[in-house]
């Protein structure tokens, strides 16, 4: 027999053996023996951690794993959640199958568990399942949003981050925004945003939710009522990811567009101008447009002369916005930015002093 035929036969034999091994795991996870089920679930978790092929071939284990979620033994619950989590990652069909198999009710139950591991694993799984559009309305029909907000307040550090990501996924359904807002989510989002790295995905998703909630009057009131809320958005505009900066400037723009007289001064006093000017040059197309719109709104406000030196900053902002569409707009913007920084030195120093006072602990 030719060598290539031998190799083909060997490859075929390996594939058959691998398929049989996977089928055996699926059978074992449905065993009546607890230890057999647990061992099989652990094996599924291991095999599906990085392999899309294994996620596809082991999808038959979804129903018995969901049954394990209803087991009275926490050990069975934990290994089943982790196996389902890995099966769902980057696999849209498995995400849908898991919900269809009835996993949502036990996962909602675990969100309320006093077992921190179960709560954390359930939050991560719900985050993954909520990433697909088919599942979003199904999850939204439960009390998942209220429970996710509770976890955002009281959960472990990781579950709080995952709850923000899950809330972001669900916030893309417009009807959910009032539920999220009514759950007093904004103070918790601001707390996380103030403490996390401004370029992180956590900050990005916080700002995305805040931009959506800023469309509501109650959302704007809550955002400006929280100490350091607007400042946190300004800091993301200065130091955030490209998408995070886009969401942050969008939130401030929404506020200012809703009631310029009410929100201009609140936004200006946090030193937003330098970040906005930089964003008109280095931001995404959307954030550049939003920044220019916000600058237009801010320059029309009745500045206090103590805040701005004889209106010089207003004139520079007005000039840079009007010249953005001309030739060499990037060069002009950079030049104007340098001039603005020099002219607004006093304002910047005042802003830095305010931040220092907030960050400095009181002496005992």
From TrEMBL:
Q: Keyword Ribonucleoprotein: yes or no?
A: no
PROSITE patterns xref list: ARM_REPEAT
From the record, give the transmembrane residue ranges: none
Q: Which domain of life is it from?
A: Eukaryota
Q: Which residues form the U-box domain?
A: 24-302
- Output this protein's name: U-box domain-containing protein
Keywords (A to Z) from UniProt: Ubl conjugation pathway
Pfam family of the protein (one): ARM_PUB
ARM repeats located where? 60-102, 102-144
Under the heading PANTHER family, the entry gives: ARM REPEAT SUPERFAMILY PROTEIN, U BOX DOMAIN-CONTAINING
In its keyword annotation, does this UniProt entry include rRNA processing?
no
């Amino acid at each position: 027999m030719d060598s290539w035929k031998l190799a083909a036969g060997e490859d075929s034999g390996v594939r058959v053996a691998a398929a049989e091994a996977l089928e055996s795991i699926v059978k074992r996870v449905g065993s009546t023996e607890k230890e057999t089920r647990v061992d099989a679930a652990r094996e599924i978790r291991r095999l599906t951690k990085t392999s899309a092929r294994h996620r596809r071939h082991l999808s038959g284990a979804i129903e018995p794993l969901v049954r394990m979620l209803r087991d009275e033994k926490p050990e069975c619950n934990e290994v089943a959640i982790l196996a389902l989590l890995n099966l769902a990652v980057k696999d849209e069909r498995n995400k849908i199958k898991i919900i269809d198999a009835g996993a949502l009710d036990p996962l909602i139950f675990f969100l309320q568990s006093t077992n921190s591991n179960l709560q954390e694993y359930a939050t991560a799984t719900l985050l993954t399942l909520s990433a697909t559009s088919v599942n979003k309305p199904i999850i939204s029909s439960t009390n998942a949003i209220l429970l996710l907000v509770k976890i955002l307040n009281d959960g472990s550090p990781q579950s709080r981050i995952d709850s923000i990501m899950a809330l972001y996924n669900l916030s893309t359904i417009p009807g959910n925004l009032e539920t999220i807002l009514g759950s007093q989510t904004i103070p918790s989002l601001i707390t996380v945003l103030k403490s996390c790295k401004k370029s992180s995905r956590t900050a990005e998703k916080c700002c995305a939710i805040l931009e959506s909630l800023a469309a509501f009057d109650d959302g704007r009131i809550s955002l400006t009522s929280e100490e350091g809320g607007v400042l946190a958005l300004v800091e993301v505009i200065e130091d955030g990811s490209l998408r995070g900066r886009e969401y942050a400037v969008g939130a401030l723009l929404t506020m200012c567009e809703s009631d310029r007289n009410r929100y201009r001064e609140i936004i200006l006093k946090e030193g937003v101008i330098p970040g906005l000017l930089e964003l008109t040059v280095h931001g995404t197309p959307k954030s550049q447009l939003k920044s220019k719109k916000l600058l237009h709104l801010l320059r029309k406000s009745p500045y206090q002369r103590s805040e701005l030196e004889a209106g010089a900053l207003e004139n520079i902002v007005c000039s840079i916005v009007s010249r953005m569409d001309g030739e060499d707009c990037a060069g002009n913007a950079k030049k104007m930015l340098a001039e603005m920084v020099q002219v607004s030195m006093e304002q910047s120093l005042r802003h830095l002093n305010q931040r220092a006072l907030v960050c400095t602990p009181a002496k005992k």
